[in-house]
Specification:
Layout (H helix, E strand, L loop, with lengths): L12 E9 L3 H11 L4 H12 L5 E2 L9 E2 L5 E4 L2 H21 L6 E16 L7 E14 L27 H11 L12 H8 L16
Antiparallel strand pairs: 1-6, 2-4, 3-4, 5-6
Helix pairs in contact: 1-3, 2-3
Length: about 220
């Protein structure tokens, strides 16, 4: 089965489900029936007490050959601790989904149900002919959040940005070294020379001094 048993889920509702539960679907259905249309705070405290074995659960169905309990007014009941633990886990998951959707803190359990999921055959060891079956169940819970006025849209709360750790303050010596590293070296400006000076340097003339009394070669 895909999805939820409720065909049309109203707006401003949070939901959660648990598949493949290794517990009796009959006990799960009775536990879900006791918390239906109740507030989430009351349901959590009730399920915690049932899971610890302090309170019994009244069974309206599947109560053949079941004893009467004075805690439920002389009605038939039992202590389904294992089933209460699974229902409590699903309820807490639905409440967490509602908080992520921004539906507030107070919720009403709009729908809570349990059904049979899968059946797995089991064979006895050593070639025996005995055969048993393992039945799993599924739980689904739908919560109704606080009423939102018309024209107002519900948005999920924004995630807080991670706080960056402040860097330690730099000392005077460190600051000077960082300034010297950051400061770029000054660029040397090119020296402009005149065109005639450049030509003079390129053309070097060897001048022989003239001495008196020397004859020139002719």
């Amino acid at each position: 089965m895909k999805g939820y048993s409720m065909n049309e889920i109203p707006e401003n509702c949070a939901k959660a489900r648990l598949e493949g539960v290794n517990a009796s679907y009959k006990e799960l259905a009775e536990v879900c029936g006791r918390i239906r249309n109740k507030k989430s705070d009351w349901a959590i405290s009730f399920l915690e007490q049932v899971a610890e074995g302090e309170l019994p659960v009244m069974f309206k169905r599947h109560n053949k050959n079941m004893g009467h309990r004075h805690e439920v007014g002389g009605r038939k009941g039992r202590y389904p601790q294992k089933a209460a633990q699974f229902v409590l886990k699903t309820l807490q998951s639905a409440i967490a989904n509602g908080k992520n959707m921004g539906l507030g803190e107070v919720y009403t359990i709009l729908a809570a149900s349990a059904n049979k999921k899968d059946i797995y055959p089991r064979l006895a060891p050593k070639g025996r002919q005995a055969r048993s079956f393992l039945e799993t169940a599924r739980i689904e819970i739908i919560l109704k959040g606080s009423d939102v006025p018309k024209g107002v849209t519900v948005t999920a709360p924004k995630k807080q940005a991670s706080k960056e750790t402040p860097r330690p303050a730099e000392t005077s010596s460190d600051a000077k070294t960082s300034e010297t590293k950051k400061a770029p070296a000054p660029k040397k400006e090119p020296v402009h020379q005149h065109k005639h000076d450049v030509e003079k340097k390129e053309k070097k003339v060897d001048v022989i001094p003239h001495q008196h009394g020397e004859k020139t070669k002719g």
